Amino acid sequence: MSLENAGTAAWRGLNLSYHWLDDRGNPIVWDGLRHEVSAKPGERLELELFVRSPIPPGSYRLALDLVDEKRFWLAELGNFTPELDVEVVPRDATAARAFLPPHADLDPEWEERVYVAHTEGYAAVGGSIEMRRTPSELEPYAPGGGRNPAFAHPLVLPSLLPPLEPNTEVAGLPAWQPEGDEPWVYDARIRLRLRPRSRRST
Fold first, then answer.
1. What is the 3-state secondary structure (H, E, C) of the chain?
2. How far apart are CA 166 and CA 37, in angstroms?
3. Is 97 in contact with 159 (CB distance < 8 Å)?
4. Residues linked to residue 115 through DSSP beta bridges, in sequence order
5. Which domain holds residue 47?
6. Among 39, 58, 88, where does a domain finish?
């Protein structure tokens, strides 16, 4: 995209960002990804703008703006804010990979709920775990409730979209600790049961 400094002051310490709005102009996502910009008066920049789509898919308006971090958005000072109508399509979930052990039994709705969450836009999806004897490390994953956007633990036995891979373990099980800006979700309705591991005598 092209961006021109049509003012009389140089741009220093500014970032190009965006807001996602609904059809009435209400903010859905206020703080978008940042792209540092600097330009002299009259200078035109050619930029490649990266955006993170809102969740869930649907019709939105993308409003572009410049921000002076921790001070103000330039639109608050009367700067023109271009807006685009955008149709966000479902995310491709065909490459999702579930990191499950052989002794995991899935709830009948497990695959459908995981697939829906990925198509909504979540790159990492985790759910609850049921066991006959639950170790203390897995107590936060007990079934009950629904989606928890404030879940404070890694996603255990997650389903991940590439290039994400498990980056930690919990109770010896593969897990993914949220990192970077990829969206994730924990949903206790996505349930599985871990059978006791068989022990062979020697």
1. CEEECCCCCCEEEEEEEEEEECCCCCEEECCCCCEEEEECCCCEEECCCCCCCCCCCEEEEEEEEEEECCCEEHHHHCCCCCEEEEEECCCCCCCCEECCCCCEEECCCHHHHHHHHHHHCCCEEEEEEEECCCCHHHHHHCCCCCECCCCCCCEECCEECCCCCCCEEECCEEEECCCCCCCEEEEEEEEEEECCCCCCCC
2. 35
3. yes
4. none
5. 2-88
6. 88
Total domains in the chain come to 2
Please answer whether residues 157 and 166 qualify as being in contact, where contact means their C-beta atoms are separated by less than 8 angstroms: no
Do residue 123 and residue 164 come from a single domain?
Answer: yes
- In whole angstroms, what is the distance from residue 11 CA to residue 39 CA? 5
Query: pTM to 2 decimals?
Result: 0.83
What is the tens place of the pLDDT at every residue in 99-121?
999 999 999 999 999 999 999 99
Residue with tokens 């891979």: 165
Could you tell me how many residues make up the chain?
202
pLDDT, tens digit, 9 for 90 and up, residues 47-93: 888 999 999 999 999 999 999 998 899 888 888 889 999 999 999 99
39 token code pair: 């330009």
Domain-terminating residue out of 33, 56, 88: 88
162 shares its domain with 126: yes
